[in-house]
Amino acid sequence: MGKWIGRSMLVAIAMVAMAGGAQAQKSTLDAVKDRGKLRCSAHNGSFPAFFEVDGTGRWQGFDIDFCKAVATAILGAPDKVEYVPLSWAQRFPSLQSGDIDVLFKQTAMTFSRDTKLGLQFSVPYFFGGFQFMARAKSNIQAPKDLEGATVCTAAGTSIEPMLVDFMAAHKVKFQLVTYEKTEELQSAYFAERCDAVAGYGPSLAVTRALKVKDPSEHVLLPFALGVESQNAAIRENDKRFLNVVNWTILALIKAETLGIDSKNIDSKRAELSAKPDANLEAARLLGVKPGIGAPLGLPETWAYATIKAVGNYGEIYDRNIGSASPYKLDRGFNRLWMNGGLIYSPAFD
């Protein structure tokens, strides 16, 4: 009897351990499907061009469109997103705790973030430089001209350590002041509590274009802190969900590479339905030929639905940041590789 009880207890313990392991291995992909909503990062304020609220109270912006893209890939519609406004400092704890499923928040992968935070990062979806903006009358031409300056930047971002390292390398002593909210940072700069502001080049250009009467009174200084890729982040050890996030980003890029956009996608799909062998990769991308759905746990038409809903990579860029936006920022690094940029998608084979 004692032996039987002992064996029964061992079996019970093993079953509990197996159940716990199965629970631990459940992918965020399954949780999103069960919930019917993707929980995605937004901003505690406005970060023009990337995440901002329009006149009707709806979120819009470059990063917001990637939240919509992932939601469409998994759930079939771009509105199946629950946006969680976060400060820069809140973004990693919120992802770690499960408050959000995915972080699209102008976030770079760094060594410490990748190895110490229990997170994993996607392929890049944007490239940008970090720069300084100062008043033109300051006549700052080189890092040494910032000696003794008060430099403001956003709290909880990779800019802080990058800025400290940059100033140390140039042997420049300065005072660093950080702010949680973009609006507070901008107010401090325009109230001249900062001699310069260090930030993301594209967002500084947007600020200069929108927030001052005469943009020529403020200049982006002719030296840069560095260049970073921006990557989505998810919790570690979730290969299934990471695959979905990665290939959603890459599908938008591949669509632009193949000349497929939200306007011509139905006609392109009709052509491929008649002659799928004319371009097998495009046929797979648009769900005419099977192959890219089942391995991800998604319908075969997930990429078709996503491109139709949010557009290809170029459409997303132009609508939010580029030629069709109020900001008119050149694509620069974010051109397709064949146009001299860094944006590239591997094959959908």
From TrEMBL:
Gene3D superfamilies: Periplasmic binding protein-like II. Residues 37-268 form the Solute-binding protein family 3/N-terminal domain. The keyword Glycoprotein does not apply. It comes from the Bacteria. Residues 1-24 form the signal peptide. One of its GO terms (biological process) is amino acid transport. Pfam families: SBP_bac_3. Keywords: Signal, Transport. Belongs to the bacterial solute-binding protein 3 family. This is ABC transporter substrate-binding protein.
